[in-house]
Design brief:
Oligomer: single chain
Number of strands: 17
Strand order of the largest sheet: 4-3-2-5-1-6-7-8
Shape: globular
Low-confidence stretches: none
Largest sheet: 8 strands, mixed
Structural class: alpha/beta
Length: about 425
């Protein structure tokens, strides 16, 4: 088996069944985590935390892993990747090698083939189930002390939630993936609250709408699992924006950690870090603050409120809906940047209109672009859709050309887009002079 064949196998069952499924159906009707439950549960031999929420799951997971690495060997499963599929599976920050990726797939493939052979058409093994099994197989080989697992869009019908986990994090929940998870905030919260299954020592909850907190609290009470809630049990305080990232203090009931710094932008990243520190304080029985500060200060998380250049100021974020523009606009305001050029690379079936509408008030120019990934559809028709809403935009169907045009306008600019666009910008970043003034 080659690396490419291993990647293809992850999606083979899904692609086979997709033609027989109703695209508009909810996850409850077409996802079957029970198929992989026993296998994934059996592979969970190491203490673990499961991270869910509507945004910021990967950032929190990355921060937790970085802090735990101050004392432990840590496995980390996240998605999606930016440049290479193996980025999804890391031990102590290092992606799985191509050889180990293939070898782990070959090890687990017979178990999935036994499941697949009895499935009727229209029912599949979730790609997330195969990835979770591969991750845990690899982490077991490496002898990790603790694993950090990021859920997909939900939890109730997400195979990753089949993994044993001693802790869970529920980041802020908002209306997203309504087709799959539910049409109300409460329905989405109920799905994500399934990270609570009674085996957790504690669950850590980000700021939430009251209705979400009610749903989560009710499930935690039913299963006898304690909650620690942002603003009550821990918080980020004295938050300061800089062009290098965020500075803040983290308060828990045990300690106040002063002058924490992360090279990521947005007050939400300070809250994410408070979540991570609160959990790790309990999981580790205490924190070596100088060592943790050093690890947090060295964080890298491409495409998540990432600063590509100081002068001119250029920011990159994997933003694909209106809600995700809130931290972008907040950051620009806090940095004193009142007007920007915005490059938007979001497929036709995502919320490009919402992003453009939200950014229009502070945008001197809006440039619509596309990635070269054939699996996503971007069309010039986006320009017309925005024109109907009174928003002027230009169409430059090449990421590099779009960024070059943004540079030519001479203003600070933000690049907002799906992961395939983020990946193309990251490749440009590798050309060291591309974003230079």
């Amino acid at each position: 088996m080659t690396k490419e064949e291993a990647e293809e196998y992850i999606y083979a069952s899904y692609l086979k069944a997709a033609a027989h499924q109703d695209y508009s159906a909810r996850d409850a009707e077409k996802r079957h985590p029970e198929l992989t439950r026993d296998l994934i549960h059996s592979l969970g031999k190491t203490p673990a935390v499961l991270v869910t929420g509507s945004k910021g799951k990967g950032s929190v997971a990355n921060m937790i892993a970085a802090i735990l690495q101050s004392r432990l060997t840590v496995g980390l499963l996240t998605s999606p990747h930016i440049l290479d599929f193996t980025e999804r599976f890391r031990v102590d920050g290092i992606p799985v090698s191509d050889a180990d990726f293939v070898s782990c797939m070959e090890e687990i493939r017979p178990a999935f083939e036994r499941i697949e052979e009895n499935l009727p058409e229209g029912i599949c093994i979730s790609p997330m189930g195969i990835q979770a099994a591969l991750a845990l197989t690899y982490f077991n080989r490496r002898g990790t002390d603790f694993n950090v697992l990021e859920c997909g869009k939900g939890a109730q019908y997400d195979d990753v939630a089949n993994a044993r986990h001693d802790y869970a994090v529920i980041n802020t929940v908002f209306l997203e993936h309504t087709r799959e998870l539910g049409s109300t905030l409460e329905e989405i919260a109920a799905d994500k609250a399934h990270v609570i299954d009674g085996e957790q020592k504690c669950v850590y909850v980000a700021p939430q709408e009251d209705s979400v907190l009610e749903v989560v609290s009710a499930r935690a009470k039913d299963f006898g699992v304690p909650l620690k809630i942002y603003g009550k049990d821990f918080s980020g305080e004295n938050i300061i924006f800089t062009k290098q990232g965020m500075r803040f203090d983290v308060r828990t009931k045990k300690c106040t950690y002063e002058d924490v710094r992360i090279p990521l932008l947005g007050s939400h990243q300070a809250r994410n870090c408070a979540l991570a520190i609160a959990l790790c304080e309990d999981a580790l029985g205490g924190i070596d603050l100088p060592e943790v500060k050093k690890r947090l200060d060295a964080l890298t998380w491409p495409g998540r409120m990432e600063v590509l250049s100081q002068e001119p100021f250029i920011m990159l974020d994997a933003c694909i809906n209106r809600a995700s523009t809130v931290p972008v606009k907040e950051t620009l305001k806090e940095l004193g940047i009142g007007e920007v050029t915005v490059v938007i690379g979001i497929p036709d079936d995502k919320d490009f209109c919402g992003v453009a509408e939200a950014m229009a008030g502070i945008s001197n120019h809006i440039i619509l672009t596309k990635s070269q990934n054939p699996h996503y559809v971007f069309t010039k028709g986006q320009v017309g859709k925005l024109a109907e809403k009174g928003i002027s935009a230009e169409w430059i169907p090449d990421t590099e050309a779009a960024v070059q045009q943004a540079k030519a306008y001479g203003l600070p600019f933000a690049i907002l887009g799906t992961t395939s666009v983020v990946a193309e910008v990251e490749i440009l970043k590798g050309q060291t002079s591309f974003f230079a003034c």
